[in-house]
Amino acid sequence: MHKVRSLVLLFACLVVSGAVLAQSPSRTFRLVIPFSAGGQLDVMGRIVAVSLGEALQANVVVENLPGAGGVIGARRVLKEPADGLTIFEGTPSQLVLAGMVNKENAIKSTDFVPIHMIGTSPYVIFARSGLQAKNADELATLAKESAKDGVPLSYASVGVGTLNHVLGEELSRRMGAPLLHVPYKGGADVVRDLAGGRVDLFINMYTAQHMSMAESGRFNFITALSPERQDRLPNVPSSDESSSLKGFYASLWTGLFVKAGTPAPILAELNQAMAKVLSDPVVQKTLMEQTATPAAKPAPSVDVVSAEYEKGIQEFSELGKSAGL
């Protein structure tokens, strides 16, 4: 039964942008995903949106608004009333790092209030097929040689100030070699060009689709940015297995947020609905299978989630400073 429901849930996640995910004549919520369709954050958002509509007994409509590393989508949400009907799928890239890159025009962490975290995703270094490096130490050697020859390796991000960008700069610093930054609008666009050999590296979370593409040789996973090998990628060495990137770890939390000033009763309703969603074994299984992301532990209140958010703001602010933002 769980397997059948999981397949139904996954099918619903793949419905085109703007599709109604749950039928109810009462209220319509809009979930703004600030990246293009097909990327991991899009898949993750659609997985929870299906069950969120059921928990709220309302319509939940997904809208993809990519651009500027997710800031365009965030700004759109901030133009709406603080009534809880417009929900933002956010990460530290928009909520913390973007403001460090552009202090005048970017959003601030305090512009949003968290409803609930979805989960924290592990990161790996993707490399185009044919790149002459199979592990972190070989990558460091190649990066230095390429830079010396006047053709530095390139790395992709989903926008200036995003975590991909920050980690790319940190990778460059740790390897002692300059890298060329190539920003994109979304992860799906990056993966397309990575598979096409038009960009060398990408530091990101991964999906079941990415794993399948790596297995078929479309690109490679060079290093898992974790102390030990990751369960889903047992053949990919961890950063601590190298001398060049030892101690270089990265992961990304993703959550649902609303505009600051949203009334407390609405926040509580949304929080409890998401806690119910993340308690569902089918949602947990689908998140792990499709996005390699363990579902966040259901939080009993907005206060608990807010404390997590504050901790995350501090952590990624420090990361941004270390990367020179």
UniProtKB/TrEMBL annotation:
SUPFAM superfamilies: Periplasmic binding protein-like II. Transmembrane segments: none annotated. It comes from the Bacteria. Gene3D superfamilies: Bordetella uptake gene, domain 1, Periplasmic binding protein-like II. PANTHER family: BLR1237 PROTEIN, TRICARBOXYLATE-BINDING PROTEIN. Residues 1-22 form the signal peptide. This is ABC transporter substrate-binding protein. Pfam families: TctC. It comes from Pollutimonas subterranea. Belongs to the UPF0065 (bug) family. InterPro entries: BUG (IPR005064), Bug_dom1 (IPR042100).
